[in-house]
Specification:
Elements: H1 5-19, E1 25-29, E2 37-40, E3 43-45, H2 49-58, E4 63-67, H3 70-79, E5 84-89, E6 100-101, E7 106-107, E8 111-116, H4 127-131, E9 137-141, H5 148-156, E10 160-164, H6 168-176, E11 182-186, H7 187-196, E12 204-207, E13 217-222, H8 228-238
Parallel strand pairs: 1-4, 1-5, 9-10, 9-11
Antiparallel strand pairs: 2-3, 5-13, 6-13, 7-13, 8-11, 8-12
Helix pairs in contact: 2-8
C-alpha cells in the first residue's frame, strides 16, 4: 500500500527538527565548599550547585555534570569547542571577552584572611599594612580569582607571594605549618573546613578587614557556543 503523501511531507518537515536536537549541556564543577560540595562521584550539592540545578530543571534544560579542575575549566571555555558551562564562577572583564554569563546565582559571604598563629597583627589593622609587610608570605591559589579588589591589591603588594597549585584545605594546612603567614578565602569556606575538623581551630585565627567588599556574586559561566536563548531560559528560571 502506498504511503499517504501528507505523511511523507510531515516526515520531511520533522526530520530537520530532529537532526537539530542538541546534546545535553555540559556542566563543569570544582570542589569548593560550601558552594560546591562533592559528596560522591554521583552526588553533589552546595550553596551554588543547588539553585543552579533547580533552575536548569525548571527551565527544562537537559544537562550532565562532571568534576573538573578549575584551570582546565577555563581552558575548555576559552577554546569554545563545546556547549559547556562552569558553575559558580566570578565575572571579570577579562572573562567576559571569551565567555557568557548568567544572572548572579548566589553571593559570597565575603573574604577574610586565614592566618598562622605566629602572625598576629593588631586588631583593626588595615589590609594595606598587612599586604605591604615584606616580612610575611601570602599563599595565593594559582588560577583563582579573589575578586577585583583583592586581585588588584595582590599585584602591588610588598609582601612576598607564593603561588600554590593545591586545593584550599591543603593551603590552610600549609599556613598552619608555617609555609606562609596568611591566605585569603570566603569566610563561609574557612568556617566550613573548621567545622569539619580539617583545620585545628587552635592553630589559626581569622582576620577580617572592613575595606574588603562583601557579597561577590557567583555566576554560570559558559562558552560562546552556548545559545543566548538557553541562558535567558536559565535566568528566567532563577527568579529573583
Amino acid at each position: 500500500m502506498q504511503k499517504p503523501i501528507y505523511a511523507t511531507i510531515f516526515s520531511l518537515i520533522l526530520l530537520p527538527t530532529l537532526a537539530r536536537a542538541e546534546p545535553p549541556l555540559k556542566l563543569q564543577i570544582v570542589e569548593l565548599p560550601p558552594y560546591m560540595i562533592v559528596n560522591s562521584p554521583t552526588s553533589i550539592g552546595g550553596l551554588v550547585v543547588d539553585p543552579t540545578f533547580a533552575a536548569l530543571k525548571k527551565a527544562g534544560i537537559d544537562f550532565e555534570w562532571e568534576v573538573i579542575p578549575a584551570v582546565r575549566q577555563l581552558l575548555r571555555i576559552k577554546n569554545n569547542q563545546e556547549r559547556i558551562c562552569s558553575v559558580g564562577w566570578y565575572k571579570t572583564p577579562t572573562r567576559e571577552l571569551f565567555a557568557k554569563f548568567s544572572r548572579p546565582i548566589v553571593a559570597d559571604s565575603g573574604y577574610a584572611a586565614f592566618a598562622n598563629n605566629n602572625y598576629k597583627p593588631r586588631e583593626g589593622i588595615p589590609i594595606d599594612e598587612v599586604l605591604n609587610d615584606s616580612k610575611i608570605t601570602v599563599l595565593i591559589k594559582n588560577g583563582f580569582v579573589y575578586g577585583e579588589y583583592l586581585d588588584a591589591k595582590f599585584i602591588d603588594m610588598k609582601a612576598r607571594s607564593e603561588a600554590v597549585y593545591v586545593d584550599m584545605p591543603l593551603i590552610f594546612k600549609m599556613i598552619e605549618a608555617g609555609r606562609g603567614q596568611i591566605t585569603f578565602a570566603p569566610l563561609a569556606e574557612i568556617r566550613y573546613y573548621q567545622e569539619l575538623g580539617v583545620v585545628d581551630k587552635d592553630r589559626f585565627h581569622v582576620i577580617t578587614f572592613k575595606e574588603i567588599p562583601t557579597g561577590f556574586n557567583r555566576y554560570l559561566m559558559c562558552s560562546l557556543k552556548v545559545e543566548d536563548e538557553l541562558i535567558n531560559k536559565f535566568n528566567a528560571a532563577l527568579g529573583k
